[in-house]
UniProtKB/TrEMBL annotation:
Protein name, as recorded: Ubiquinone biosynthesis accessory factor UbiT
Protein species of origin: Thermomonas hydrothermalis
Residues in the signal sequence: none
HAMAP family: UbiT
Residue ranges constituting the Chorismate mutase domain according to the UniProt record: 2-93
Gene: ubiT
GO biological process, one term: ubiquinone biosynthetic process
Molecular function GO terms recorded: chorismate mutase activity
Described purpose of this protein according to its UniProt entry: Required for O(2)-independent ubiquinone (coenzyme Q) biosynthesis. Likely functions as an accessory factor.
Length: 283
């Protein structure tokens, strides 16, 4: 008989949770891919997009290298997810890069109007998306340097306009904490050399909220005043610094954020809100 190894059981239990999360994420991705297939069919598109699949694999490989994971393993994992998506869309294995239904016709530009009606809590697939707190153990596996790098890049893109115009000069030498309560993540940021950076120092003031509420704020589906009034966002610490940061959130020039990023934030926020409603409805 194998003797019990102290500390082994909890680690294996955590691995089981990660495995469950992988399957849930695969199911969610497959359902999203099925919706994409319907949109493509409605626009007269058929077949697979080789260029997009290549970009997906390359992105996974780059992320794997940063995380110390084999890029080949990451590429194989993504390839399995793509294959399952193709199965859900009823696609063959050949890559025709999205040929049109009628030869010689140009694929029309698709204007997809995103609205809450497309993501209703009653949609069964939304209930497959795990709440952020269940993903916390997986997210926290990201090394702190990687977290800092991703956050600094995101802030640089979203806040490029305000930084350039000096709206964030009040952050020079000040330290503002950002806490994602359900993911157990916390960073402290300051303004150094004309850019926002993550520092290893105590925060003077902290903005705390769930991943969904912070995403709703970033996607401009909720305003800061409403979230703070409803206590879905909480300020702690230096009142003056916290209020200045809150006022900045309300005045962010949304039009200066790159269009592609605005679309991603907005649609991601809608998905997160609908998934949260579906989860609460089923619990």
């Amino acid at each position: 008989m194998n003797r019990p190894v102290p500390g082994l059981a909890p680690l294996r239990h955590a691995i089981d949770g990660v495995d469950d999360g992988l399957v849930l994420l695969l199911a969610a991705r497959t359902h999203l891919a099925r919706l994409v297939g319907r949109l493509k069919a409605g626009a007269g598109m058929t077949g697979r997009d080789a260029a997009r699949e290549r970009r997906i694999r390359q992105r996974a490989e780059r992320l794997a290298v940063r995380l110390g994971v084999s890029p080949e393993a990451a590429s194989r994992l993504v390839a399995l997810a793509i294959a399952e998506a193709c199965r859900a869309q009823g696609l063959e294995s050949d890559l025709d890069q999205g040929a049109v239904m009628a030869a010689g016709m140009i694929i029309p530009r698709m204007d997809i109007h995103d609205s809450d009606s497309t993501l209703k809590p009653s949609h069964a697939w939304l209930r497959l998306l795990p709440p952020p707190k269940r993903l916390a153990p997986v997210v926290r596996l990201l090394p702190m340097p990687v977290q800092q790098h991703l956050l600094e890049r995101a802030m640089a893109r979203v806040l490029a306009g305000p930084i350039r115009e000096g709206a964030l000069d009040f952050m020079a030498g000040r330290r503002l904490g950002i806490e994602v309560s359900d993911l157990g993540l916390r960073w402290v940021v300051t303004l150094e050399g004309g850019r926002l950076v993550v520092v290893n120092a105590p925060a003077e003031a902290t903005v705390r909220g769930t991943a969904t509420d912070l995403l709703l704020l970033a996607g401009r589906l909720e305003d800061a005043d409403t979230l703070f009034f409803q206590r879905r966002l909480v300020l702690a610490g230096d009142v003056e610094l916290g209020l200045t940061a809150r006022n900045l959130l309300d005045r962010l020039p949304w039009e200066t954020v790159p269009l592609g990023l605005r679309i991603v934030l907005n649609r991601g926020a809608r998905l997160a809100r609908a998934a949260r409603a579906a989860y609460h409805a089923s619990s």
